[in-house]
Design goal:
The chain has helices at residues 48-55, 78-88, 104-114, 120-130, 146-158, 176-193, 204-207, and strands spanning 4-17, 20-33, 37-41, 63-68, 71-72, 89-92, 164-168, 196-200, 212-217, 220-226. The protein is built from 7 helices and 10 strands. It has one domain (36-59, 77-226): Rossmann fold (3-Layer(aba) Sandwich), CATH 3.40.50.300. The chain has a 6-stranded mixed β-sheet with strand order 6-7-8-3-9-10, with helices on both faces. It is of the alpha/beta class. The radius of gyration is 17 Å and the shape is globular. A hairpin with a 2-residue loop joins strand 1 (4-17) and strand 2 (20-33). The longest helix is centred in the C-terminal third of the chain and has 18 residues, at 176-193.
Length: 231
């Protein structure tokens, strides 16, 4: 039987908006299996990014259950959620969220130091070399292109060897060439570390590489399609 690493049961999300309370997600039930790549697709406003935020404990579910690696994310406080993400999850956003006053290697090494990794800078250098930035270790984000900054963000997410990597439109701000590089690097993480990847994308070529596709519409999972078996 496949190993479930992330599970949502009847999960709902309601947020406050200008017109009052807005129902964002409605009764989401979904299992994510260890080592698979799951693409979240659907029209803008369908709830894809909100679902990803719930999976990472970056938003609180209004109701329902969310379990990751046996931990109930709905009962953990903010400090416990932050520790859990630090130990088990990597997150990559469309906008790179690098610290502008830190060099590439410092951006990657700092989360490792916070996690107590003793060889933080050695591992950070190795991850940056793995994404083709061995010559850019001491460059600041302002000195790098968008594609290079996204590679730094990916190296930062990959360096702790996360069990789960969540990616929200990781190629959305990139041209086709840089987007292809990021796609290859993302799927290489599963090959290198067995990382489970859940990603939100509007890019058909990125979705096509996923093991399964969950299509959202109006805050619900409309279809769940198996494309290929996870390795």
């Amino acid at each position: 039987m496949a190993d479930v690493i992330l599970s949502l049961k009847n999960t709902c999300l309601t947020l406050s908006g200008n017109a009052g309370m807005v129902d964002i997600l409605h009764g989401i039930t979904l299992d994510v299996f260890r080592g698979e790549t799951l693409g979240l697709v659907g029209p803008s406003g369908s709830g894809k990014s909100s679902l990803l935020m719930l999976m990472g404990g970056l938003e609180r579910a209004t109701s329902g259950d969310i379990h990751a690696l046996g931990h109930d994310l709905t009962v953990l406080n903010e400090d416990a959620l932050a520790r859990f993400r630090l130990q088990h999850m990597g997150v990559v956003f469309q906008s790179f969220h690098l610290i502008p006053t830190m060099t590439a290697i410092e951006n990657v090494a700092t989360p490792l130091e916070l996690a107590g990794v003793k060889d933080a800078f050695t591992r950070a250098k190795a991850e940056l070399c793995a994404v083709g930035l061995g010559a850019r270790l001491d460059h600041y984000p302002s000195q790098m292109s968008g594609g290079e900054q996204q590679r730094v963000a990916l190296a930062r997410a990959a360096a702790p060897r996360p069990d789960i990597l969540l990616a929200d439109e990781p190629t959305g701000n990139l041209d086709a060439s840089n987007g292809q590089v990021i796609m290859d690097l993302l799927f290489g993480l599963r090959d290198r570390y067995g990382t489970t990847i859940v990603l939100v994308t509007h890019a058909p070529e990125l979705a096509a590489r996923c093991d399964r596709i969950a299509r959202l519409d109006d805050g619900r999972i409309d279809t769940l399609t198996q494309q290929k078996a996870a390795e």
